[in-house]
Specification:
Hydrogenase maturation protein, carbamoyl dehydratase HypE, PurM-like_N, PurM-like_C_dom, 31% helix, four-stranded mixed beta sheet, 60s Ribosomal Protein L30, Chain: A, alpha+beta, seven-stranded mixed beta sheet, PurM-like_N_sf, 336 residues, 9 helices, 13 strands, Phosphoribosyl-aminoimidazole Synthetase, Chain A, domain 2
């Protein structure tokens, strides 16, 4: 391509569009389905039930410690499928590009997206590109949709938590949101806070194989751990108690949250899974999580109770109790 920035011609559907698709997107995402260049991809799907998810990504900045908007889009959609126990198979990708976007930045984002998909063994099989005039978007927005297969007999959902169950998490809380915010605002902390953006499907598959008794899986993204657990408590009509002393929070993340007046329990994560399991299999589940690179810091952080149905309560270090309501308003805009 001669142009090194995106122009309105790249959204015209003509020669410039075809050059952009061929030299940037098709080259990075190359596979047999995409290579046909038809209006839709015809896919092979193994036996089981279909899981589908879609999400849009408008994160600012588009490049951040631990990833960029491209890898985040792949990881986020894969994780949404994995929370239903699905094995992710295929993704689509739609791009809204701002006129004037650097082609080098676009290539960096697309390459990261393609690398994340290859690492996850998921194919990007269809896509679309639109270009809007300068000032009508902010560099690049990405929409992804994903398809996966759920094995017969597997039932997971926020409605299945039961009193006596426990709450597990595979690692530290609030990393993604604080990495984004510190980068955006130019806040320097001791050490570099990195996004936890990662694809969780392999970790989830290992957990479900070893512990088919798992009742609920959720990734605590926008709204963080507290909001996600509130959703589960309301769906299952149970109470959930969190143990403050058990919460895994990095010192630099806790320091940044304190500096900015934020509660890490409401800060977004992009590589974390909350698992609600019967107490009888908790230790086995923790062993499985800790045996995976993405679960080395797994902890038991709470329990499900029949008290205060629909509510989440934090049991503090000093023996008190604090109600954790759902997030109100937008704490961290454009976090994913």
């Amino acid at each position: 391509m001669k142009e090194r920035t995106i122009t309105l011609d790249h959204g015209s559907g003509g020669r410039a569009t075809h050059e952009l698709v061929r030299e940037v997107f098709a080259r990075a995402f190359d596979n047999a389905f995409l290579g046909q260049m038809n209006d839709s991809a015809v896919l092979q799907v193994p036996a089981g039930r279909i899981a589908m998810s879609t999400d849009s990504y408008v994160v600012d900045p588009v490049v951040f410690p631990g990833g960029n908007i491209g890898s985040l889009a792949v990881h986020g959609t894969i994780n949404d499928l994995a929370m239903s126990g699905a094995r992710p198979l295929y993704l689509t990708a739609g791009f809204v590009l701002e006129e004037g976007l650097s082609l080098a930045l676009l290539e960096e984002i697309v390459e990261a997206m393609a690398r994340a998909a290859r690492d996850a063994q998921v194919a990007v099989v269809a896509g679309d590109t639109k270009v809007v005039p300068k000032g009508k978007a902010d560099k690049i927005f990405i929409n992804t949709a994903g398809v996966g297969v759920v094995p017969e007999g597997l039932e997971l959902g926020g409605q299945y938590a039961r009193p006596g169950d426990v709450v597990l998490i595979n690692g530290t809380i609030g990393d993604h949101g604080m990495a984004i915010l510190c980068t955006r605002e130019g806040i320097a902390m001791e050490g570099e806070i990195q996004s936890d953006s990662a694809a969780l499907h392999d970790l989830v598959a290992e957990l479900l194989e070893a512990c088919p008794q798992v009742r609920v899986l959720r990734d605590p993204t926008r709204g963080g751990v507290a909001t996600t657990l509130n959703e589960i408590a309301r769906q299952s009509e149970v109470g959930i108690r969190l143990f403050e002393e058990a919460l895994p929070i990095r010192d630099d993340v806790a320091g940044a949250c304190e500096l900015l007046g934020l509660d890490p329990l409401y800060v977004a994560n992009e590589g974390k899974v909350l698992a609600i399991v019967p107490r009888s299999v908790a230790e086995k589940a923790l062993d499985v999580l800790r045996g995976h690179p993405l679960g080395r810091d797994a902890r038991l952080i709470g329990e499900v109770t029949d008290r205060d149905p629909g509510r989440v309560v934090l049991c503090t270090r000093i023996g008190g109790h604090r109600l954790l309501d759902m997030l109100r308003g937008e704490q961290l805009p454009r976090i994913c």
